[in-house]
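Thread: "does anyone have the structure for this chain?"

Original post by V.I.:
We have the sequence but no experimental structure in hand. Need at least a predicted one for the grant figures.
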Amino acid sequence: MSRPSPPDRSPTLGLLLGLIITLSAVLAYSAYLTWQVSGLRKLQTELVDRNRKDSLQLLRIQNDLNLLAVAMRDMVSNDEPYPLTAWSAQFQRIRNDLDDAMRLEAGFSATSRTPEQSAFLTSSFTQFWDAVDRVFALAQEGREKEAREQIQLSLQERQAALSTAVARLLVQNSESEEQAGQRIVAIYDRVRRQVYVFLSATLLAILLTGLSLIRWNRRLFARMAELSERRSELAQKLIATQESTLRYVSRELHDEFGQVLTAVGSMLRRAATHVPESSALRTELQEVREVTQSTLDKIRSLSQALHPVMLDEAGLESTLDWYIPTVERQTGIAISYEKQGTPFPVDGAAGVHIYRVLQEALNNVARHSGATQAWVRLRFLPNALELEVEDHGAGFTERGFSERPARQGIGLVAMRERSELMGGKIVFSRPPEGGTRLHLTVPREKAESYVKEDHSVAGR
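Reply from O.Q.:
Generated one for you, tokens below.
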């Protein structure tokens, strides 16, 4: 006997480990992606948006400086009819707006700006306004010529220096914004590449897992098919052995014990002819003869029950015509037997299987159902043969219909095995009146090919 192959290792542990690794990778990458997006949002908020707001304030400052330049040009013009003190209110308005813009700009100043640049801008404005105050002080003292000279020599140069510094800051902000844009594009490109790599790795892992599952499932189904085939062969051999044994025992009972008892009966009958009719011995011989005949009848009945010879000689239909009334006499159960359709030959092993299914079903009715009536229906259909056995007794529980074959009785398992050997199908159900209904369907070509292929149990 060949050594059985070791059981295949279940892939459950490997698949579970792979699932855990995949989920961990997804979570880790999701956290990393969230961190990247947060950094990108922070960069955009703190640098780009801040630069834009700072640039708006610098443009506001530059505009005020341009207004100051225009005003100082008019102040030193020889065509100016107004005294310098008349410009004081306009300078004050511009100064207030510049102070407000400087205050806001200090809050939005770019991170790339050095403290020296901020200090230079603040000190330059302070010196500019100090010079403005001195100019207007000279004008109030009536020294307008000297004041105009101060405007030309000091204020205009300071204004030009401030405009240049603000312009440089605007250029610096523009360069910082451009660099930030490049960094944002680089981050987007890096994240996109990482997403592609991660998706490719994930798809590869899914593909490998799927291929592994397909490979394992193929091995599993091949193993199941092999076990099913071996189980079918074993069941067929067991049933064939059982039928061969029953046939042998039936023949031995009929031939050996039947002949012996028949001979004993004949000897008793001859012996009785030599005894006077009034003798008590003649009466005793008659009683022994009756017991012998009763035993002979029981042995013949048992022989037929083990394997009816009629099944081999007359076929399934005639055997059922004989068997069902016999069961009625033995059990006292009224059996309604119906036949439908045009009969076709069913004999050999298929006939034995169908007969055994009916025999087991009626035995279950007699032993377990408690019913007093049963129905047997044999239908010869164009493409199949159907056998139906029904009773309205105790029946199965709801759980019994759905139980696995391993947990059902031996008789039910045997019936299922026989139906599978014929390529048929057996179904147990509960009729509306209660009890149990057995429905066996055997394809006609299967039954006929079963006979034609000479799969008779007699030859096993």
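V.I.: this helps a lot. The two ends are 21 Å apart (CA to CA).
O.Q.: and Confidence is low (pLDDT under 50) at residues 1-5, 399-408, 451-460.
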